Structure formats: structure tokens, C-alpha cells
Amino acid sequence: MSNPYLHISPEVAVAIENNRPVVALESTIIAHGMQYPRNVETALRVEETVREQGAIPATIAILAGRLTVGLSQEQIEYLGKEGRNVTKVSRRDIPFMVASEQDGATTVAATMILAAMAGIKVFATGGIGGVHRGAEHTFDISADLQELARSDVAVVCAGVKSILDLGLTLEYLETQGVPVVGYQTDTLPAFYARESAFDVNYRLDSPDQIAAALKAKWEMGLGGGMVIANPIPEAYAMPHVEIDTAIDRALQDADHHGISGKATTPFLLARISELTGGESLESNIQLVLNNARLAAQIAVAYCCC
């Protein structure tokens, strides 16, 4: 917390100093995930959901070169209005945003880094990045996976984004020693879908069990994060056939337009939303809220361990 580049809001700083539960939240979903004003409304709903469970939300971004942990409502509004004018930032981009005093919306990887700097142990997001389909040719692998091996932060998500190669992503996480825990499920959720053909490493059925595993891991010096895979609420889950058809079409469109690198995921999610008549966007919002709820419960349990 003495990092000269790091600014922690007073509310979040006091909570961390007094061992009160805090949940980190990313800002890419605000600037790149959806349009204004839906992005701001969703971000504020996510923060309120965290508070309802007894934890403090800490939305994270880079503002004018400052690593900012705990955004104000005005700052969230600013990011929402600026949208894709704000740079999408991963690990490699952070020093350049700071040195040039630019704004940056943090991805899963960058949010984990800043959360770890601040001493926050639990982070809620939608879905993690992973190994892209066709990576055996493109080597397109999200920096999220390497960060999960580095940073001592638990990531609560709806599994791996279904636009990715789930099997190869799990293999990569296994190689890096990152545990994948299913919350009340034996199979890996696939973002819009509650299940997939792949098993998780461990099933845990309560926030207390997850908190105990995190405490044991980090107190033994076993560094790195943990994936907490939380299935989307059943009412908002989408049929495999419908979402797979939309994903295949979106992938074809991305290839046709030459979309690659960090532009790929925002393009695919937006295109899938179009192809599903907005149904996938509503599912995306509900799964983020569901993850924020569980993350807050885990953070509360962790502080009580």
C-alpha cells in the first residue's frame, strides 16, 4: 500500500487495514463490455450486490496514469462515457499507461495485479480469458492464465468464456498449478451455459470451504491464484445449440474482418449479443451479478478464517 503509483480510495484502504472483506472488480467490462449507459448501470449494480453481502467493492482502473483501486461513481461514469476511447490494459501495458499518464480499463490480468498490490484477495468478473480456438496455429493465449499462476488472488467467474477452447485452457491451468474449483458443480461452467464436457479439479459447496482452501494455500506459501467457477443462474443460462451456433458465426465474422489480439474478445461478445437478439448480454449481466454475490461471501468468510 506504500507503492507510489498506487491510489487506494479511503473506504477501501480502511477496509484492508482493518481486515474487512473487499472484492476487486474490473473496468474493462465498463469501457469495452457494453454500451453507455448500460455499462455504468451494470457496474453500479455489481458494486451494490457486493455491499449487500457485507463486503466493500473496489472497482479498479488506471486514471491519468494512477493505479486506482476503488473508483468513485463519477469515475465509473467517466469510464462508461469514454468507452473504447479508454485503452484496454493487460500486464504489458501498465507501465506505459502510467508513464504517459493515460487512462486504462483493466482486464482480468491487470485487475489481479493491482488487487494484489493493494492486498485484496478476492476478485469477481464475468469469465476468464484462456486458450483461443486455433491456438495451435496462432499461439493466442490470454495473459489471464499466466497471471493466475503469479498473483495471490482468487477469481470468481462463470468459468472460461465459451468462445475459447475450454479443454486446452484447463490443460494450461493444470501446467501452471492453478486449481479450478467448481462452486456446487462437478463440471466446468462455460460462461453462458451452466455445464460443459469438462470436470473441475475440486467441488466445494460453501463460501466457508473455499475460504479455508484459500487460507491454507497462501499460508503454506503456495503462491498464485485460484479459479472459482460459479455457474450462471439457471434462469439466464442459454441452450448449448443456440450459443454454439452464435459463437461459430461470430468466429467466422472475426476471421473475415481480420480481428485479432486483444480486440478479439470484445468483438466476439458484441457480435454474439447481436446474433442472439441481446439475450447473451442479459445473461452476461446476470452472471456477473451472481459472481459478485459469491465473491463477497467468500471475502467475508476469508476475513473470518
Topology record:
Blueprint: E1 6-8, H1 10-17, E2 22-25, H2 28-31, H3 38-52, E3 56-63, E4 66-69, H4 73-82, E5 87-89, H5 94-99, E6 104-106, H6 108-118, E7 122-124, H7 135-138, H8 143-150, E8 154-157, H9 166-175, E9 180-183, E10 202-204, H10 207-219, E11 226-229, H11 240-257, H12 264-275, H13 279-304
Parallel strand pairs: 1-4, 2-3, 2-7, 5-6, 7-8, 8-11, 9-10, 9-11
Antiparallel strand pairs: 3-4, 3-6
Helix pairs in contact: 3-4, 3-13, 6-8, 10-13, 11-12
**CATH-level-2 architecture:** 3-Layer(aba) Sandwich
Instruction: Kindly identify the CATH topology.
Output: Indigoidine synthase fold
Share of residues in helices = 40-55%
- What summary fits the major beta sheet? 11 strands, mixed
First-residue to last-residue Cα separation:
23 Å
Average pLDDT, all residues: 93
User: How many structural domains does the protein architecture include?
Assistant: 1
Query: What is the CATH H-level superfamily?
Result: Indigoidine synthase domain
CATH C-level class is: Alpha Beta
Structural class: alpha/beta
Strands, total number:
11
Short overview:
With 305 residues, the protein is of the alpha/beta class. The protein has helices at residues 10-17, 28-31, 38-52, 73-82, 94-99, 108-118, 135-138, 143-150, 166-175, 207-219, 240-257, 264-275, 279-304, and strands at residues 6-8, 22-25, 56-63, 66-69, 87-89, 104-106, 122-124, 154-157, 180-183, 202-204, 226-229. Strands 1, 2, 3, 4, 5, 6, 7, 8, 9, 10 and 11 form an eleven-stranded mixed sheet that branches.
